[in-house]
Amino acid sequence: MDSKVPVSSLKGVGKQAAETLRDMNIETVEQLVMTFPYRHEDFQLKDLAETPHNERVTVEGRVESEPSVLFLGKNKSRTTVSVLVGRHLVKAVFFNQHYVKTKLQIGAVISLTGKWDRGRQLITVSSHSIGPRTDGADFEPVYSLKGAMHQKTFRKLMRQGLDATKGQLADCLPDSLRREYQLLPFEEALETVHFPANGEALKQARRRFVYEELLLFQLKMQALRKKNREAEGGSFIDYDLVRLKAFIDALPFDLTSAQKRVVNEICRDMKEPFRMNRLLQGDVGSGKTVVAAIALYAAVTAGKQGALMAPTEILAEQHANTLEEWFRPFGVNVAMLTGSVKGKKRKEVLKRLAAHEIDILIGTHALIQPEVLFSNLGLVITDEQHRFGVDQRRVLKDKALNPDVLFMTATPIPRTLAISAFGEMDVSVIDEMPAGRKEIETYWMKKEMFGKIVGRMEKELQAGRQAYVIAPLIEESETLEYQNAVELYQQLTVYFDGRHKVGLMHGRLHPDEKEQTMREFAEGHIAVLVSTTVVEVGVNVPNASFMLIYDAERFGLSQLHQLRGRVGRGSEQSYCVLLADPKTEIGKERMNSMTETNDGFILAEKDLELRGPGDFFGRKQSGIPEFRMADLIHDYRALEAARKDAETLIASESFWTSEETKCLRSMLRDSGVLEGGRLD
């Protein structure tokens, strides 16, 4: 049977079943057999002596007593029978299945699956079969189904589909890769992943599909990367190395070895005739801004303009002030364009930009307005790139003919996610902090100590320093028992009355109010800023030395680390207190992790391990692909291998011409990356 035939051609697929399958995105027999189970029920017989308490177990035994039935109310019952399993006489309990009484004859052989209570020597039965097992089906596939489709029905259809497509489906993996990793042939792996003979066979089938899935994904990423790099008119920035070294030597501090490495990676890209598409990761306070400044100055020495886009006006202003100070001795013209630059001043900036009288333009999303025209834009830098939508980033990039692009983020992204979500980019990492930075002391305390903590905060305020207080909610919630910013603001205003000014910041404030509050805090007019997580990425306030995070168990590790990074930016010792009463072991583990390390990358890996990739980024905008079989956390070795192999394949001439890779090229074309066998 042709694998492309409609699934309705299979026996037992009527109109209703066909509609249900269509809702599951299954219209052909091929789509059916490529719908993998999300788990397998394990019906291997176990030895009760080796089975832990409360584990699910399958056993075979002989009925030793007459069953007793206890009716517990309407349609509720409990049936109990003694079963001899090996040397163990156990009780088997069936809930709401009183009809089994007639089948449980003394001496009958029975298979039971259920939860094992070691102390009471009892199995709470979830499924059973009468008579000795003959089918040998130790593993039963469980699929994600919709509507009235049942597992039993779907398994029968799957059996039909596999039988019908034997010899019809191509094995897309080149033999050389299959041999290198000792992977099962496609057809054998497909049969096994649905109906495995044993646990080891299932493991090998899964290995094959995990690698194939990750290889195809990485081929897409590498093909896109090649396409971007070889885009027509890629920006070639022939910077002046002598002037660039003079600028670096004039900086008021020495670069760390990590900064030097990253600068070299970026400068090497800028010299190449292809478009740079690089992600710069650096922990809070690791010195990404100076790397951005060096890259911008390199562009200026080549006669190009540069643009730096920040997510907030106050952050853009902070960048502008820093860069103006560094660039002033070198005659670089820096200008700022944000929503508050209006009228005559705005027109003047736009006119000077178009005439190339401005070398570097710094701003917010105002940079992507249609009337903002550059004369010769060579480099685009986006700070906290995840704060901008894909379209916003693309509009800025389109202000020039293929400018070099550098994305910066202070959110440490574990390598496994970086090479997946940002697989089409090159990734640079600043993994070293500048010398002289004092590590933030972090403490986890219970909520009853709130009064003591506020007293400790006041000592910092009396010494002339400032503090952040973070709450998870804006206002009181009927459903969530968590502290809210408004209530905390009111409490602290009363507590510090006449001694220290308290400010309030949250997402519902008008942008102008937010800017004003942040400005007052930055200038020292506000001593304590009570806020929600809107300060996660915010202004640099070196004088802030104390942070209290209320209900800290509500936040992910990476978010807690981002918040903590608002303090510790000056020369004074800084403190972060996590106020939390976590109810789960994972919650306690997260709090302990925060007190044990200040390394954002270690915390990011831990966060990924504890919460998974979707929750790490936020499901809606994660950009993390949904895989049928692969798991980014546990299959990271396969991901690394697939990336390496995809890079080699895309770079080789034989990939584009060989018969062996024809199937992979076809899959790439179906995904929209290729057209006619080459990069479109």
From TrEMBL:
The gene is recG. Residues 269-430 form the Helicase ATP-binding domain. Coiled coil: none annotated. Plays a critical role in recombination and DNA repair. Helps process Holliday junction intermediates to mature products by catalyzing branch migration. Has replication fork regression activity, unwinds stalled or blocked replication forks to make a HJ that can be resolved. Has a DNA unwinding activity characteristic of a DNA helicase with 3'-5' polarity. SUPFAM superfamilies: Nucleic acid-binding proteins (SSF50249), P-loop containing nucleoside triphosphate hydrolases (SSF52540). GO terms for molecular function: DNA helicase activity; hydrolase activity. SMART domains: DEXDc, HELICc. The keyword Nucleotide-binding applies. It catalyses: ATP + H2O = ADP + phosphate + H(+); Couples ATP hydrolysis with the unwinding of duplex DNA by translocating in the 3'-5' direction. This is ATP-dependent DNA helicase RecG. The keyword Nucleotide-binding applies. NCBIfam families: PRK10917.1-3, PRK10917.2-2, recG. Its EC number is 5.6.2.4. PROSITE patterns: HELICASE_ATP_BIND_1, HELICASE_CTER. Belongs to the helicase family. RecG subfamily. Residues 463-609 form the Helicase C-terminal domain. Keywords: ATP-binding, DNA damage, DNA recombination, DNA repair, DNA-binding, Helicase, Hydrolase, Isomerase, Nucleotide-binding.
